[in-house]
Amino acid sequence: MRKLIEFDDDTFDKLKQLGRDRMATLQELADEAFADLLKKHGIPIDLKDALRKSARLQEATRLQQGTRPQDAAKPRPAAANAARKRGRKR
How far is it, in rounded angstroms, from Cα 67 to Cα 49? Predict the structure, then answer.
């Protein structure tokens, strides 16, 4: 997708010089700048970033509720007692 962005002459000259110094195109500079802006505001850039953010939110929710993933795998005492009464092993 193409969009037009207008720069004043001084800013454009500085961006061109920065691009020359870093051997980067103006498009690469713009991509880096917009990626940094999105990151600053907590907006995922791609699917990988979105999945990382989602996993962090789930972990934070678990910590606030006082549960851990290991706790989910352990049988609850009531269930263990009921299994014993039926003559089954845990």
Answer: 25
> Beta-carbon neighbour count of residue 13 at 10 Å?
11
Give the pLDDT confidence of 32-88 residue by residue, as tens digits: 999 999 989 988 888 888 888 888 888 888 888 886 656 555 555 666 556 666 665
Q: Are 80 and 90 in contact (CB under 8 A)?
A: yes
pTM exceeds cut of 0.70: no
